[in-house]
Write a structure and sequence with these properties.
The chain is α+β, with helices and mostly antiparallel strands. It folds into three domains: 216 residues, no CATH class; 112 residues, no CATH class; 59 residues, Arc Repressor Mutant, subunit A (Orthogonal Bundle). The protein is built from 15 helices and 14 strands. The strands form three sheets. It has a nine-stranded mixed β-sheet. It has a three-stranded antiparallel β-sheet with strand order 4-3-14, with no helix packed on it. Helix 14 packs across helix 15.
Length: 476
């Protein structure tokens, strides 16, 4: 029997920070401007210029550290990482090397019905580079992106397959977006990912040769690249071959990875402290000011909604993903004895109406507590669920309170036994076939007859009472 191999995966995720200006200058951090219009001598790397650190980028880095359970350093510094690329204006990148702003954290996320934890090695601050464009007969460089603050979040090699890698990335994106760190718009290049993957005999500890797949710009690309690369590596070592540490690129069209360079060709970046930037030593007041910006993590929010309001996972997931809708719901649910019913109306009815009409929570005609009133009318038996749908439509359109609508339109549910008896007698007389089917043991026929009672009563009959009355009369 052959050796069973397992993959070991670590991810380096590069995220553009949500700042108004670039990392070292006052140029706009904005996507979509004409090429080389958001530039200045600093971000073009011209001789004699001096960088000045963007304090909001430093705050967002520390905030990311808190959100990812990291240690936020009280002593960090910036280094020069020396290398030449056409889109690197200075021929070096200012980054953090041995003393980053944050280190040693973790991210918890849901995976295959349980909770998974991936350790975070560090989240360090650096600058983005420009962008190359290749045309038919020449190439162009756009330096608008050069100098944009970039956070590199490095995971430990705790990820074991392609699906888990995608779940980690999606969970990380949720934290960063909801924490106000980045918009994480992948179509605008705000998130990119380098994938480190090796294979080893299952159950062993030493890591295999690390293969790095550079500059993945979509989570689905990460999944596809791993689904190709892991079997490729396993096939080589299974046949007695040897893997060499190397860097590869993902060809999305061909669905394969291709070698760019091997370890022997790897760059010596010659890191040294940037002489133009002082070490960063935040004081207690600065750190506590950042800590005050920490938001509830998406997973913690979902768990709390399930715990405090007895919601199923699906409902809580809706409120985890849509923060505004969840906050709206919670404002009502805190005052309600029926939080699950409130969730049904908010998710199934209100959200659908907003999508249908293009409305927003801020422009609702009715007050939030009207949903609680509507739920109470249904739960008390004053109106049926069918009538409640009609009331909600009116409430959404006019802003009138549910009780007012019910009284004005005479929609109170009929629970008078005499009236229900008459409706049932009429339905049984009008539909002898289904009535005899029920008497013959076809239980489902009762639902048809009950539907006819509701139709005859224009939805006002108490459904439970109608069912009980029909069953009693048909069995008599």
């Amino acid at each position: 029997m052959g050796i069973d191999y397992e993959p070991v995966i670590g991810l380096e995720t590069h995220v553009q920070l949500k700042t108004r200006t670039k990392m070292w200058c006052g140029c706009a951090n904005a996507f979509g401007a004409d090429p080389n219009t958001n530039v200045c001598p600093v971000c073009l790397g011209l001789p004699g210029v001096l960088p000045v650190a963007n304090e909001e980028a430093l705050r967002l880095t520390a905030l990311t550290g808190f959100l990812l359970n990291c240690t936020v350093a009280r002593h960090a510094k910036f280094d020069r990482k020396n290398y030449f690329y056409p889109d690197m204006p200075k021929n070096y990148q200012i980054t953090q090397y041995d003393l980053p702003s944050t280190r040693e954290g973790f991210l918890e996320f849901e995976y295959q019905g349980g909770l998974m934890r991936v350790r975070i090695t560090r989240a360090h601050l650096e600058e983005d580079v420009g962008k190359s464009f290749h045309f038919a007969r020449n190439s162009g460089l756009d330096f608008n992106r050069a100098g944009v603050p970039l956070l590199e979040i490095v995971s430990e090699p705790d990820i074991t397959n392609a699906e888990m890698a995608c779940e980690y990335l999606n969970a990380l994106k949720e934290v960063l977006v909801q924490g106000g760190i980045s918009d994480c718009d992948m179509e605008k290049g705000m998130v990119r990912c380098d994938v480190n993957v090796s294979v080893r005999p299952r159950g062993t500890t030493p890591l295999g040769a690390k293969i790095e797949i550079k500059n993945m710009n979509s989570f689905s690309g990460v999944r596809r690249a791993l689904e190709y690369e892991i079997p490729r590596q396993i096939e080589i070592v299974s046949q007695g071959g040897k893997l060499i540490q190397s860097t590869r690129r993902w060809d999305d069209d061909a669905g394969i990875t291709e070698e760019m360079r091997t370890k022997e060709d790897a760059h010596d970046y010659r890191y040294f402290p940037d002489p133009d930037l002082m070490p960063f030593k935040p004081d207690d007041a600065w750190v506590e000011g950042v800590r005050a910006r920490v938001v509830e993590l998406p997973l913690a929010r979902k768990q709390r909604f399930m715990r405090d309001y007895q919601l199923p996972a699906g409902d809580a997931e809706n409120f985890k993903q849509d923060i505004a809708l969840g906050d709206f719901y919670e404002g009502i649910a805190r005052q309600s004895r029926h939080p699950k019913a409130v969730a049904n109306w908010v998710i199934n009815n209100l959200r659908a109406k907003l999508a249908e009409t293009g409305g927003t929570l801020a422009t609702l005609a009715f007050k939030p507590e009207a949903i609680n009133e509507l739920v109470t009318l249904v739960e008390s038996g004053k109106i049926s669920n069918k009538i409640a749908q009609e009331v909600f439509t009116d409430m959404y359109a006019t802003g009138e309170a549910p009780g007012v609508i019910v009284e004005k339109k005479g929609l109170v549910q009929v629970s008078d036994t005499g009236a229900i008896d008459q409706f049932c007698d009429q339905v049984i007389a009008a539909h002898p076939g289904p009535a005899n089917d029920f008497r013959a043991g076809k239980v489902a026929a009762l639902n048809f007859l009950k539907g006819q009672v509701m139709k005859l009563s224009k939805g006002k009959a108490n459904p439970a009472l109608a069912g009980e009355t029909l069953e009693r009369k048909l069995k008599a």
